[in-house]
Write the C-alpha cells for this entry.
Amino acid sequence: MVQKVKSKDFVIRFAGEGGQGLVTSADAMARAATGAGFYCQTFSTFPSQIMGGPASSQVRISTTPVLSNGDAVDVLVVLNQYAFDNHIDDLSENGVCIYNAQDCIPSGDGNYFGINADELAKESGNTRAANMVILGAVATLIDFKLESIENFVKERFTRGRAGDDEIIKSNIVALGLGTEVAKKSGFSVGSLDDPNAPDYEQIMITGNAALSLGAVSAGLDSYYGYPISPATTILIWMEQNLINEGKFVFQVASEIEAINNIVGAGFSGKKAMTATAGPGIALMSEGLGLAWMAEIPCVVVDIQRGGPATGLPTKSEQSDLFACMFPAHGDVRLPVLAPGSVEECFYVGELSVNWAERYQGPVMVMGEFSLAERSENIKKPDLSKVVDERRNSDTGSNGYKRYESWNGKLSPMPIPGGEVAYVANGSEHDEIGDTTHLPKHHIRLTERRFAKLGLLNDAPFEIENPDSEIAIMPWGSSKGVAREAYQQLIEKDKNLGWIYSVALNPLPEDIKEELKRKKLVIVPELNYQGQWSSILRMEGINAVSVTQFTGLPFKPTELANKISDKIKEIGD
Amino acid sequence: MSDRNPEYDFKWCPGCGDFGVKRALEQAIDTYTEEFEIPRTSNVIVAGIGCSGNMVHMMDGEQPFGIHGIHGRTLPIAFGVSTSRPDLNTIIVAGDGDFLSIGGEHIGPAASRNPNMTCIIMDNGVYGLTKGQSSPTSTTGQITTSTPFGKMETQMKPLELYLTYGVSYIASHYSSKPKVLANFIVEGMKHPGMSIIHVQSPCTTYNDTYDILKGNRREGIPGTAFIVEEDHDPSDYNAAVSLLSKGGVPLGLIYKKEPPTITELQNKIIKEKSKNPQDILSSYSI
C-alpha cells in the first residue's frame, strides 16, 4: 500500500526518552534538508531533567519558509512504548509511524512498521549509530536523497580527531542498513516537491544564538549571566564568543548580581547585557528600577518559559509580559522588544543595545523557549549594515547637569575618565544627581523618564488590510503560527486585518492609531490572563485574547478555528 | 550639605565617625590621583544605602564619579565597573548593614574573583538611617529599637569572615585618625585586587562606642582598640588568624597577598582566543 504525504511540507518527529539522541536526529535531518535547499524549523520538548522523561524533537521541512510546527506529524519515529502511546494521536491521517521493534508493540490500526535499530547498529560496527539507521529509513520513506545526509555526516564528524574516518564510515553503513529495511517494507510515504533554494546566502542558527550574535555585532562589551533554562545557552555562547580587547564575560553568582553588574558596566560607558528567565526577572526587579531611575543603559533578555515560580522550565509560555513591562515598584514602564522569528532575534539583539544607549536606560527583550531553542535557516545577516549606536557623552565644566528637564532632547551622559563627573542615584535627585526630596525634581524627572521613550520609534511593524473591522495581533513567538492561521482565515474571509509590532512599548504611533480604528482586535497568546490584550485595553483598544497554556505552542489550524470561534462568540 | 550643592541638605550628626572617614577618603583620592596621574573623574565611588553611603554626595574638592546604588549591592555594581573598566579606581563606601547583612552574599564570590577595588566599610554596629535597629555587628544583648529585650543572636566577626573568604587585602581601623586611615586606604587602592578597610565609625546618636573603642581612664573603661604589632607579618595567614582570635579591634594591616586579579586572568584568554563577529557568523553557514 502506498501512502501519500503532502508534497509542500511535512513534519518528522522523533519521540522517546531524554538522553536518546532525539535532538541530534532532528537536527541531522534539518541540516541535511537545508543543505539540499529546503527550509526547516526544528522544535523540541522535554522535561527539566538530564535523563529520562518523555522527550521529542521534530523538524518541519518545506519548500517555502516555515512559520510554525504545523498541525500534525507526518512521519513519527518512536523509540519506546511510552513514546508510542503518547504521540500516536498526533499522527496525521496519512502519516506513517516507524517504531523501535525491540521496545514497542503498536496497537490499533495504522500505517506502522518496526525496525530493530540497535541490532542493525551492531552490524554497522558502531553501537551508537542506531539514530543513523532510523534516519536512513526515514529518508527512504520520504524519498529524500541519501546523499544529503551522507554529506551532513561527513561534515559533522570531521572534527580533526583520530578515528573520525571510522566513525563516518560506520555511520554511512548504518544509514544504508536502515535504507534497506525501509525498502524491503514496501512502504513509501511520498516525496517533497523540488526545493526552491533562495539565491541569497543562508545560515542555520537558533534564536538564542541569533540574538547573541546581533548584540555582539552591534558592539556589546560586557555580559554577566547566571545559568537558567532556557537562557543558559546565551551565557555559554557569550563565554565562547564575546572575546576581544575591551570585552568581558563572566558567570556570576546570582541574577541579583547580574543585574547590578550590568548597571555598573553601563554606568561606566559600556554596552552590557544579561539574559535570564521568569524567576530571574523576579530577582532583577529592584535592579531594573535602579537602572530606570538612575538612567543607566543596559539590556535584560527574558527567555520566557512556563510560570509562575519555578513553573515549567522547559515548556513554552508567554506569561511574563506584565513582569517585563512593569518589573519594579514605582512608576516604571520599560521599553519592551519581542522578536517573532529567528531572523528578528538577530535584529532585536542589535536594536536593543542601541535603544539602551539612545534613551539612556534599561531595555527588556522578550524571547521564549520554543523560539530560543529552535534551529532555522535564515538569510545570512549583512554585518556591514549593523549599527553600533553609542550614548551622547559630554565634555564640559564641573558640576555638570546630567539630569536636566526633558526638552525633546536628552542631556548627554558623561563617562568615568572623561572631563566632568556626576553621581548616578537610585534616590530621586537633582540635575547633578544628589539626593533630593523636593517635589519640583520628582515631577520634572518623572516626566523626563517617561517622555524620553519617544526616542525609541524605529522598531519594525506590520499592518495589512487596514480597512478591515477585525484584526489579529500576535506578539513575540506566537507570530509565526498566527501568520499561518491568518493565511488560512483570509482565504475564507477577506475582511480580516493583520497587525504586528516588534516593539510592545513604546507602541509605534501608526500601530496605536490602527488599533484604535478596529472594532475588535484578537490577540493569540500563550498565557492565562490575556496579558497583551489587557495592556491594549488600558489604552482604550477593544482587544480580547485567544489563550492557551498547555506548555506547547499553538497549532495553526486549531488556532484559526479558535479565532473564528472567538469572532462568532463576540458576535459582530 | 556640600559646598558645591547648597540644595542638598543631608547632614551627619555632630561627632559622627563618618566625618573622619570622609576626610581620609578625600585625602586618599588626592594622593592616589596625584601619584598615578589619573584624571579625577577616573575615581568611581560606589555607595550603599545608609548614612555612610551619603558620603558620595558630600565629597569636597573636585567631584569624582559616583553611583548611589540600591541596598546591599555595592559589590556587584563595583564588579561591573571594575571588570568593564579596569583603568578606573573603583571604590566602595558602605555600612555594616549594607555590606554584611543584605550584601553579605556577595562577599564570598567577589573575594574568589579578586577584582581590583577598594572597599571602605563604616561599621557602627547599628542601622542609623532607619533610626537604630540591630545590625550584624551589634553585640549580643545590645538593646536597640528592633531588639528591645536585647539582641539574641551572636555578633558577626567581619574580619574573620573576610579572611576565611580569601579577601586579598584586609585592614582594620577607626575613624578618629583620618590621616592614618588615609594611608591604609591609599595602600588598598594601590593593592592589585580586592581591598577591604573595615573602619569603626561610631554613631553618636544610636550606638556611641567611642569610649568602648578608645577607652576612658576616668570611668575605668579599657579600650578595645589596639595597634597591630610591628612584627605582625601580614602575608602569614596563620598569624592573621591568631591576631584576630585575640578579640578587640585591631588597628592596622591584618592580611595581604597578591593572587592574580580576575582582569589579569581574563586578559590571558583574550590574548589567545579573540574572535570577531564576521568569523562567528561564518561558523553558521550551511
Residues 3 and 189 of chain A are 5 Å apart (CA to CA). Chain A has a mean pLDDT of 92. Chain A touches chain B through 72 residues (CB under 8 Å). The longest strand of chain A covers residues 91-100.
